[in-house]
Every structure is written in C-alpha cells, then in structure tokens.
Amino acid sequence: MKFIYSEWDEQLFQALKDLHDLMAIYTYLLMRMNGDVEETLRLMERLKAQGVLDEKYDLEQFREMLKNNDLIRQGKNGSLRLSPKGERGLRKDAFKQIFDKMRSSGKGDHPLPYEGGSSEEPLPERRGYEFGDSPRNIDFTSSMFNSITRSGDLGLSMEEKDLEVFETERLSSCATVLMIDVSHSMVLYGEDRITPAKQVAMAFTELILTKYPKDDLSIVLFGDDARQVQITDLPYIGAGPYHTNTQAGLRMARQILLAKKHVNKQIFMVTDGKPSMITRPNGTVYKNPMGLDPRIVNRTLDEAVICRKKKIPITTFMVTDDPYLQQFVQRLTELNRGRAYFASVDDLGSYVLWDFVANRKKKKN
Prior knowledge:
Elements: H1 10-17, H2 22-32, H3 37-49, H4 59-68, E1 72-74, E2 80-82, H5 84-104, E3 120-128, H6 140-151, E4 164-170, E5 174-181, H7 194-211, E6 216-222, E7 226-229, H8 246-258, E8 264-271, E9 277-279, E10 285-287, H9 294-309, E11 314-318, H10 323-336, E12 339-342, H11 348-358, E13 362-363
Parallel strand pairs: 5-6, 5-8, 8-11, 11-12
Antiparallel strand pairs: 1-2, 3-4, 4-13, 6-7, 9-10
Helix pairs in contact: 5-7, 7-11, 8-9, 9-10
C-alpha cells in the first residue's frame, strides 16, 4: 500500500529534519514509498514546493546523478526504477544507519564490523596448545615465560608443551527466518512501522552477507497469510489491509528452517499486533480482530510449541505497547522458551542486530 502525502504529515516532517543531505532524504522517502522511484522523486518536488526541502537542492541535477551512478534505471515501460546497485546501496545504508545509532548509544561495542573475518574470537582465558589450534591464538608472552621457567634458559628453546593459546568463541553457522508483520496496524493511525521493519530487514541482510556469509537468512511476510520474499524484494514490500495471521507465519518459517542443514535455527518476529486470524487445516480461515480470541491464540501457540520441540527458538520484537500483544507474546515466549523485547520503531534495528550477534555465539569445545 502506498501513501501520497497531499496533507501535512508531522511524522514525515520530523524525520526529514534529522536528515542532513539530499541522498539521505531520498533514501528515507524511497523506503516509505515502497521502492517506487518515480513517486519518490515527485514527492520530493512537492516537498520542495511546500518549503520542506531547502531551495538550494537542484532535484533535476539530483535525478541525473542517480542515473549516472547507475542507482536508478529506466524500466521497460519507460519509468525509473531501482537498479541492482541501487538495491544494494539501500541495504548498506540501512546497516550503516543502524550501526551508527548503536555506536552513538553505547551498543556499538558489540562485534558488528563491516568486513568479514575469522569465525573465532579470542577470550581472556588460556589453555595448553593442542594440535590443530590456530597459530594466531598463541599467547607468546605466556608461552615464553613457560619455556624460561621449565628450562632456565633465556634463549629460544621453546617446546610445544610450553605453548599456551587463548580460548576462543566459535561462531557456528545459523539459519534465520525474519518474520515481518504486514497487517494494517503497521501503518494505522498515521504511525509508520513498516518502514523501520524494512530497514531492519535490509540491515540484517547486509550484516549476514558481510560478516556471516555461511549463515542463511529467509524473509517471511505475514498478514492474512504468509509468503516468502527474496532479498531483492525488500525495498518494495508494504503493509496492506490485512489481519494478523501469526500462525501462518510461524508455520512457514518452521517449514523453511527444517529444510536447512544448519545446526542452529531461529525465528525473529517483528510485530505490532495480536494474532487475529488463523488458517484451519481444511484451508478455511477464522478471523476475530477483537481482543484475544482463545481459538486463534491456542492454534498460534501450538506453532510455538512445535518450534520448541524442533529446537527453533522464537525471538519476538514488539513495536507497540498494546497490552493484548504483550499478554500474547509473554505466553508464546514461555511456551517456546524464546526471548521477547519491546522496541520503539527508532530502536528496533539496534535490538535485532544486537540480539542476533550476542546470542549466536557458542564456546569452542
């Protein structure tokens, strides 16, 4: 669903005040317009005419810059659309924004580097060297002290038994399904929650592609039903006039993960509403948007229990303080033995990326 900003939008205005250059403004608006380049550029023209964008910005020159840098291309129907380079740029920008926010808030100390690296990270603890240990983990200071203590020789008479290595944390590969709620409540009452959710999905993708290339990430959208989308689809997804079929989303996520060979599997779910719909085994649906319907809740919780039995933890990120949602998520988390967070739309990305890194490490045996 797209929104044309013909009337004053206070949330949009406040967001634009925090953006300091035209590319950042374009990127933000492009996300809100579900990747529609033509609509985004027209909106920028309207905002400039309204005085929201500074007069110094030459939007025609900006359009040509996007073309010349292959960030947008002309489609078969003659309209402008994102190029593959433009789609990658959105993912990188989303990750940079979230990581910069984490760093400024003090959460950036968590290991989220841009480049890939070793699958092991050193710990302060040390132990004796064993065949197969990486030479980069040797503590040469302690090893040399051991050699001197054993032999009394200040020369280089070190033996294998003198060597000590730092313990390491091994980052085992993981298959993750990121579930995104696309029900109507994600854009209800003028509050845009779907744009931050998309930004998180793109940042999450960039994190895994750069830091954890052996991991697997799948994206599942859930509204009236559930559907899997590709990474390249992320800029173009939007919320619609849908109910919240959490059951269908969890079921699809579980089926995707059970087909993966990764030892570790998990579900991350971003939602702002209680479940209001289920799909019966015969394919028919049952809906009730009022309160917590026991029939809907119980069938949805059944999926959480099945995931627990399959060793698939569910981490839920709530982007609202709806008491009905909190009550439901608390029960789901207990039954699944997963985790749950309340996150504002501004902090959602920090919570998701931090939890992913902090909880995926396993100590080396």
